[in-house]
Amino acid sequence: MQTSQISTASVAAARSSAAWIDRGSITIIKLTGADRIDLLHRLTTNDLRDLRPGFGKHTVLLTDKARIIDVIAILHDADTSYLLCSPGQSATIIAWLRKYIIMDDVSIQDMTDSLQVIEICGPRSSEVVDSLFGVNVGGFALDQWFSIEQEGANTIITRQPSACEVSYWVIAPRETTQIVRENLFANQELLPRLNDVEAEYVRITAGMGKHGHEWTDAFNPLEAGLLHMTSFAKGCYIGQEVVARLDSYNKVKQRVMGLTAERELLTGSRLFAEDADIGVITSVTTSCDGATWFALGYVRGEHAHPNAPLTVRVGDVAVSVTQHLLPMEDPSCR
Question: 143 near 34, Cβ under 8 Å?
């Protein structure tokens, strides 16, 4: 049995009440200019034409071969839009955007070093946001947002996708987020902080993708389960022809499945059905008690079935792997 760094109490709080996660490394890019939404609409997978101030959408940036660059959230306002991107993606995304700005009225500002993010998650997370900021976010739609003055600085609060039913992100300058952290730590017994290992455990068992793991240029958005961020009625965008062809001819060759094993699994390990190489492991964590390994992986379509046996080769040993539909349950974390 492995020694687990996962607190059952913290995970249980995130799933049944509320907890928080320090997301300080999120890439944040500010766009201004009259053509910014038109540009993003032409470049990304989702239909952005109906965006209204105070709302947003998730969309996917693709290569011309329809491989994933990143999954981003766009928060739209009358004169400004914010892009919430994966950590470490500032240079890549800014260069990608500038490549396609010709005569467009679009200005780009990297806000990553000046803003930080705290995620408050769980079914009762709206109550925590209300107690911290005195605002009611319980009726927020996904990607809805607003800004308030907090400790003399502009603070953005937005609802984002969650592995724990509901999540709100607090986006503010470092000084402001430090005050928020202190308030959260003061209530640690009732509102625990998920460490990095616990946050990964929650993400993986919930089946949520992540840049560098399920979201890379080895995969396309249909394989990654990002159909809900992909419009087939909006017209052209980068990678659109390939996505349309994959959909029309049912050529999506693999899908993300949940995986478990009683021995260690490693990210990047190949998956086999008998002697056929049929997939790859993309994310790994342990169970709360450390006895079981949980993973996400891409499995070729004809082999992607719950309980269908697979193996991973660890040296000369074939380790048995069980497939699961997502999300996955961990009996040791209840």
Answer: no
